Each structure stands twice: as C-alpha cells, then as structure tokens.
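Entry 14. Structure prediction run on the chain below.
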Amino acid sequence: MSSYIKFCGFLCLLLLLSIPGFSQCIDSTTGPGTYNSSTGQWEIACDAAGAPFNISATTVIGSFASSIEWSNGATGSSFTWSPDCDELGVQTFTPCLPAGLSVPSQSITFPGLSGTIPAGSSAVETFTIDPICFQTGAEYSGCLEVYIGGSGPVNLVLELPDGTEQATGNVDPSLLGAIGNCVPVELIGLNSDPSGTWTVTIQNNGGNQMSYDVVQSTLGISAFTTNTVSCGEPVSINVFGGCPDYISAQADVTEACSGEPFNLSATLDPAGA
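Output returned:
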C-alpha cells in the first residue's frame, strides 16, 4: 500500500508541477535599441535617432495590461522614454501587477507521451509548459491518464526546470489499474513556479520490454483573486555615449605632406564619449 500511495503521489506531482504555482502574470518585456542576450540588457546610444522610444510589457491575461504599474511611476502596457547624454549607464524599469486582480478560469494542455522501452533501458521525454497566471489557492480539475504496459518495476524520474529531481523509486505498474489509470489532480498541492522545460525519464528496471502512454489531457484551473504583487522581468537599458561630432577635421596639403606632426581638433558629443 505504501508503494501505491507513493506512486500516485508522484504522478500527481508530475502533473501539478507542470502548472505554475506562482508564475509571473507578466509574460514578456521589450526595450529600445539592441538586445544583448549575454548581459540581459538593451543597449542604445544616448543620441540615437528616433526618440522617444517605446518600453512595453505583455500579460498572460490580456485585459491585465492596463493594470501594469512600472517602477518609474508609469502605468499601462507601455510608455515612451528618451535616453539622456547626461545620464549614461544602466537604467532599469520593472513592470508589476498589483494584488486584488480577478483572474478568470484557465486551462493548460499536458502533452501526450508514449513509447517503448527495452528491458533494463530508459526513455527520456522533454516538454515545455507555457506560463499561466497562477497563485497558490486556485483549484485544479481533471486527471492525468497514464498507461504502462509490462511487468516492471518502473521508476519515473522528473527533472524540474530549476534542475531539481523527483523520483518514484521502483513500483509495480499494475498499481495504476487500481485507480482506473486516471490520476486526479486534487491529490497534492503546489507552491512553486515550474513553468519551462521539463525532462521525464522512464526507467524500465524489469526483464521484459515495457510500453508507456500518457494521454494528452486538458486541465482546468479555477478563477481566483491575486493575493500579492506579481512583477515581470525588468527592462534594463544600457545607455552609452553618442558619436563624436568632429569639427575642423581638415588639413592643408603642406601640413599633410610635410612629414611634420599636426593636430586635428574634434568636439565629442557628449563630452567624454
């Protein structure tokens, strides 16, 4: 009985960890200039043409965009901003959603997984769950339908997006039949954000070939009211000095051909660029 409970508990964990426990309701952010993936910053010259520029964010729930509050005091999904040659360096703007927002019911699709595993071997599956707007307290509905053919034992190992692992240990696949191969989502809670890419390893630790089939399922999440502030990724903008504005950058033939040193003067815009 203890193996049965452990196995069911793990399968529910596998399911629920695929639903963000506290995902960021703000989905993405965009800044001006060129994005540097190495630094995670947008880069722009302080005198770049086209100012003012747009800084924006998108929300998982589209109607929430107008409720965004930025760290500089701006509100709404976007605002305009102009770089200043007197304020070089990194500037950061963070979008947040306030507590008290009413989140409508949502759903996610758990992907179908299937295959066969030779005796003593493993199968590895990866999948990504897109973010939803979720906070602890919302209720789940539906079940995960799982079939494993073979005598086993089988060990399921789940690697979470943050690198941590969960495993069932060796269990008898026939235990699934006792619950109709349908594992209800209500058996376990969740308090973390698992959105991202997951890796599931199914280990066949028996002496015979094994098959597995996780049926694609649509799972529901109840409506709820946010109980805390939820912030998205900040927009970090690295403002660097503009291009030099050269003056008197000229020399007559005598100076250029005499072989003697001479000076060309230039004014930098901004100073020190």
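DSSP finds two helices and 25 strands in the chain.
Filed with the rest of this week's runs.
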